[in-house]
């Protein structure tokens, strides 16, 4: 399994947000780090097909990002994940499963399985408006996994999680990364340290580092702060 970005570029007005990024990613957890405004969200949105690049291509095993086949292999949790406050957790997952093309039987089985994984089974019949921030975030992770994605994109997924929930989340992600490509964008360096096989670091729309951090970087937080100390 391979995700290939080839000279991916996006410009807003006079600012180049993503500047000719080329990447090849295999299965594993890839941590995307960068200060606010580095271009991380724009990059992820192009990988998800939500945003059209000005130039360059995105393919997964040779399948183009603009196709239905690519979308079927994709799971995405955006930073501003939207939900329906009057739905229960279970209703929401069943609804999202239908949108992703699962049959009723598949949807029910998968929703039950994922509610267990993200520890929301006991709260499946509560309305989402009564969920805490961390519970909503875990529900968002569950919906991103409904279609067994080969490529999972998570934009700031640990925002709003308490320390215990973050550990639980990291365990889920580490497990998924064994057989799939996971791109996890966050500015919480410790989340990346604990779970990422590979580090991608962005600054001013460019990729300034890619590789395994344990071998090359020593203390990841120190390395990260050094790159952005003037910002």
Automatic annotation (TrEMBL):
Database matches in InterPro entries: AAA+_ATPase, ABC_transporter-like_ATP-bd, ABC_transporter-like_CS, P-loop_NTPase
Presence of the UniProt keyword RNA-binding in the record: no
Domain ABC transporter: 3-229
Any GO MF annotation of the entry: ATP hydrolysis activity
Alphabetical keyword list: ATP-binding, Hydrolase, Nucleotide-binding, Transport
Keyword Chloroplast in record: no
Signal peptide per UniProt: none
E.C. code: 3.6.3.-
Family: Belongs to the ABC transporter superfamily.
Protein name: Putative ABC transporter ATP-binding protein YxlF
Originating organism: Blautia obeum
Gene transcribed to yield this protein: yxlF_8
């Amino acid at each position: 399994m391979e995700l290939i970005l080839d000279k991916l570029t996006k410009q807003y007005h006079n600012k180049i947000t993503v500047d000719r990024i080329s990447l090849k990613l295999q299965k594993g957890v890839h941590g995307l780090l960068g200060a606010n405004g580095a271009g991380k969200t724009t990059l992820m949105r192009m990988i998800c097909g939500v945003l059209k690049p000005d130039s360059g291509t995105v393919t997964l095993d040779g399948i183009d990002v603009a196709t239905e086949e690519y979308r079927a292999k994709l799971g995405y949790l955006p930073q501003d994940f939207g939900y329906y406050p009057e739905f229960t957790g279970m209703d929401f997952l069943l609804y999202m499963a239908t949108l992703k093309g699962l049959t009723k039987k598949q949807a029910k089985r998968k929703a039950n399985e994922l509610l267990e994984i993200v520890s929301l089974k006991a709260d499946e019949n509560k309305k989402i408006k009564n969920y805490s921030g961390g519970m909503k975030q875990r529900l968002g992770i569950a919906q991103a996994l409904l279609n067994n994605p080969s490529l999972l994109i998570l934009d700031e997924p640990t925002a709003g999680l308490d320390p215990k929930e973050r550990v639980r989340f990291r365990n889920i992600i580490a497990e998924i990364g064994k057989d799939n490509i996971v791109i996890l964008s966050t500015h919480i360096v410790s989340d990346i340290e604990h779970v990422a096989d590979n580090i991608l670091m962005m600054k001013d729309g460019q990729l300034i580092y890619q590789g395994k951090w344990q071998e090359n970087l020593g203390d990841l937080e120190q390395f990260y702060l050094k790159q952005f100390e003037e910002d």
